[in-house]
Design brief:
By secondary structure, the protein is mostly helical. It is built from 13 helices and eight strands. It has three domains: 61 residues, no CATH class; 101 residues; 122 residues, no CATH class.
Length: 297
Amino acid sequence: MTKFTREPDAASPWSASLRLEWGRKFACPTARRSASRTPSRRHDGPEIAFPQWTALGRVPTVAPPECSEGHAVTEALLNQLVETVEAHYAVPDAPPLLASRFGQSNKPLLNDLKGAYGGLLAAVRAAGEERLKIADTRPGREVIAPADRAADIGNEVQQLSATARAAGSSFDSLPKSVQIAFCVRTEAGEVVTLRVTSPYDYKRIKAGELVRPGFRTIAEEYRKPGLALSSATVQDKQALWRQFLAWAEREQLDPATFQAAKKDSNALARFLAAQPSDIIGRIVIPADIAEMLLRRS
């Protein structure tokens, strides 16, 4: 058996023009590990002393058998990823596939992709832009899509984002006490009631307790208890707005009256709206303070 220990001639299959790094030439973990090994590698042909070839900047033009196997495994993972993405969008009215939610129904595949590529988005890029694309690149909101549908899905994402922003803005237009009523925490056995005329106010009462005149109960299905409005996302507020509209429809209330009340309110009205309903009648506001609050929009 012959062992090459000198630089090959130009006609050799291991040509000097192939000055590619071993790990880059064969993009698989096995090949990268093999590059650092001291013992020579065996092929069907001559035994080749890889350390000498590496020193000369030469790499073989044929991958070792174990590298081919590793490449086949990673390629199978990418094929499975592509099939999973396509299956998601094959469902009628499927929502955009968020990378952050991929693992909810594909955890084993996600773990394998992380092991092979370090992360889901890196695997998407490894699959190639001719197969998969990232339709929305906003950090934390990345959307994976088949290449042939990426443009349409990207437009859909933009439309959904615009709708969510509009809904979030609509919820913000409600009086603050109304907003709080839809996300305030309650103790066991408590329900939330809301005064539906200005000044708006909410009150927590025991289940079964008599609801005060002018108040309506907000069933838990319409609320998001514990949500902090200061850190609520656009999507959170969009959901709250939808729930507010559903509640208003059930109670046969006009949502516009709540928004108009805030638009026309002043600092005094907002101050009174923020107070518990059972103490409003006992509040005494000096005339000069009241006049100043009335002038502030």
